[in-house]
Amino acid sequence: MPQKDPNAIATNRKARHEFHIEETFEAGIVLKGTEIKAIRAGRVNLKDSFARVSKGEVYVHNMHISEYAQGNQFNHEPTRARKLLLNRKEINQLIGQTQQKGYSLVPLKMYIKNGVAKLLIGVGRGKKKYDKREDLKQKDMKRDVERALKDY
């Protein structure tokens, strides 16, 4: 079994199945007070989320952060667009890469580093159906080899 990352709060396992990830970037996130509390409680879902560059800024959409249980009327909206904090050089690089046909920005993992929430985003090219089948075939063969070596 793959090793689970100890400091990862949420991972997007479907992203590596759906995309060929070519490059990754670490980005900070602009959050409200109750959002960081919900993230530390592990109430994050990256499944259907995506990132988009608009007006020279990078935003992540559809990232679901559940409402904080002890919050009051100032609780946050769960799926609002959140701004990602990247350097201008990195944003320009992302703009150039995502303008190519078939490339998109995919959130891969959320974690806390030095007390600050970070999001690992990847530049990915969508896989075709035959690519996905080939990956599953490789994974099955690897699993069979490991099982045979274990039994030996």
UniProtKB/TrEMBL annotation:
It comes from the Bacteria. Keywords: Cytoplasm, RNA-binding. The keyword Zinc does not apply. It is found in: Cytoplasm. InterPro entries: SmpB (IPR023620), SsrA-bd_prot (IPR000037), SsrA-bd_prot_CS (IPR020081). Coiled coil: none annotated. Pfam families: SmpB. Its main location: cytoplasm. Belongs to the SmpB family. Required for rescue of stalled ribosomes mediated by trans-translation. Binds to transfer-messenger RNA (tmRNA), required for stable association of tmRNA with ribosomes. tmRNA and SmpB together mimic tRNA shape, replacing the anticodon stem-loop with SmpB. tmRNA is encoded by the ssrA gene; the 2 termini fold to resemble tRNA(Ala) and it encodes a 'tag peptide', a short internal open reading frame. During trans-translation Ala-aminoacylated tmRNA acts like a tRNA, entering the A-site of stalled ribosomes, displacing the stalled mRNA. PANTHER family: SSRA-BINDING PROTEIN, TMRNA-BINDING COMPONENT OF TRANS-TRANSLATION TAGGING COMPLEX. This is SsrA-binding protein. It comes from Alkalibacillus flavidus.
